[in-house]
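Good morning C.,

I know you're traveling, so I'll keep this short. The sequence:
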Amino acid sequence: MIIDAHLHVWSDDYTRYPMADGRTDAAPGSTELLLETMQTHGVDKAVIVQPIYYLYDNRYVIDSLKKYPGKFAAVGILDRHAPDTPDQLEILVKEHGFSGLRMHLGRPDDPAEWAAPDQDPIWRKAEEVGALFQSFGPADKQPAIEPIIARYPGVKVVIDHIGGAPTDEGDDAPLLGNVLKMAQYPNTYIKFTPQGHKSKEDYPFADTHGTFEKIYDAFGPQRIMWGTDFPHVMRDLGYGRALDLFREHMAFLNDEDKEWILGKTALNFWNFGG
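The tokens, ready to paste straight into the viewer:
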């Protein structure tokens, strides 16, 4: 089984699903386009991450899960400062089948806000209902959430896009070190997504593979999952090459590793309902 553990969807019906910034010209990214693309490339399931285009309006993802039961897992976005966020999280999980919430570390002026004491009620609710968190942001901001990860070892956290680590730091690699340090917490996982924009070479971006290997060494295949970042990946790389980058071109991965990273880790991690 192959599972795309990181992607986004949005509707071209801007009346029914208005975007938070008033945008009406987003690139094609419907759930139906996603399903067609997955079928073409033999991908069985996918994890929909609420796009920032909709901010806290999770309706399109909710409707996608309802329309295609068992095909998708989902991660929402909620206002971390709203007094009813713990209750809203419970509704997303119990009524709509979501797996958890995404943290955008770059949105507040101080990413430590995500680990402040006022976030404890949300994390306690997450622990109660079995929800998880995704961490999205650059590598220099990842340490800001380490305190709350340590406080809640029963809550799983998955780090998006190799933790935003650069791929050309050299031997010391302090920013990559921020990401590797998170592996000490057994409740942390990480996503392998294409990092071609950080490469100075053509596909398959061989100059980035060393960074992936260091992350693999730290986390192990059972805490790594693959994703494409659809539909953004369609613009510059292509969905099939995003899959083959890890299926064919990462020499340090053996067949068993690929089974975990391309599917088994995600299958054990996400709630696909259905």
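Safe travels,
E.
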